[in-house]
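User: Please fill in residues for this 276-position structure.
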């Protein structure tokens, strides 16, 4: 993996260079092994939290981890195009608009002892802006090359805080073209329901059951690129102990191995259905 400037990353994309890179400020990674008609994203995978913010932050390291999406990059790591955040959403949230990306409160609790100075906010906002410059270049290239594109937008959610039965997998589709892509969305839901997990973890999937696909990553791509479908795909955190901060690697591995099979097949079916 190389450390590259945002301008060099974009130049590589425009020239269809295959590469593995981390942004020069270590805020996100992008790997392109091959230019294909689908990409995977893990915008909330990151846990980094820059040191100048530590003393001012009221949330603990565990509280931050609890609201992040650990291991979501690992679940999609084998696919040809993967973009992932390295920084915690508590520093800036890639799944919120530029104006809302730097939190003042987070999950009902004040985040900072004293309000962040503009200089610190601007550092975070610039990282957010750089990420979306690269996303725009990437999706633009894939649409130009293939005419159509699909993005698997991977997230996780804390299932134990719900007071009702919730699905292992949830698809949020309220901001995509369901009339055009409805069959493809349902096919993805069905495919996720086939994923077998160890320890008797249930295999269920639903659409708009817990979350509705209101994230900025999905909205940014959907609003700017008319031939790209973004599938906001949430796994319940059955792959960890969300209260004791323990990851179950065998569950993460099971998800990764099965997505390696079902995801490219789904992407291929999507391309065959819509490329004309």
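Assistant: Residues filled in for all 276 positions:
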């Amino acid at each position: 993996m190389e450390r590259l400037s945002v301008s060099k990353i974009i130049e590589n994309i425009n020239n269809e260079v295959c590469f593995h890179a981390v942004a020069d400020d270590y805020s996100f990674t992008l790997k392109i092994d091959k230019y294909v008609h689908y990409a995977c994203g893990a915008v909330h995978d990151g846990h980094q939290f820059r040191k100048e913010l530590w003393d001012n932050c009221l949330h603990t390291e565990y509280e931050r981890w609890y609201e992040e999406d650990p291991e979501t990059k690992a679940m999609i790591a084998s696919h040809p195009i993967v973009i992932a955040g390295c920084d915690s959403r508590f520093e800036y949230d890639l799944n919120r608009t530029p104006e809302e990306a730097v939190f003042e409160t987070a999950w009902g609790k004040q985040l900072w002892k004293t309000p962040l100075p503009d200089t610190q906010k601007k550092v975070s906002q610039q990282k957010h802006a750089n990420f979306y410059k690269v996303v725009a270049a990437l999706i633009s290239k894939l649409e130009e090359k293939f005419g159509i594109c699909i993005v698997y937008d991977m997230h996780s959610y804390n299932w134990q805080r719900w007071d009702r039965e919730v699905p292992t997998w949830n698809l949020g589709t309220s901001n995509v073209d369901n009339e055009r892509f409805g069959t493809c969305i349902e096919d993805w839901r069905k495919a996720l329901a086939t994923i077998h997990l160890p320890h008797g973890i249930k295999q269920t999937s639903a659409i708009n059951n817990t979350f509705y696909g209101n994230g900025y990553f999905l909205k940014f791509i959907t609003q700017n690129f008319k031939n790209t479908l973004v599938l906001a795909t949430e796994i319940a955190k059955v792959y960890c102990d969300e209260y004791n901060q323990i990851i179950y690697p065998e569950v993460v591995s099971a998800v990764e191995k099965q997505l390696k099979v079902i995801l490219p097949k789904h992407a291929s079916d999507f391309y065959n259905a819509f490329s004309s």
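For context: The chain has one domain: 2-274.
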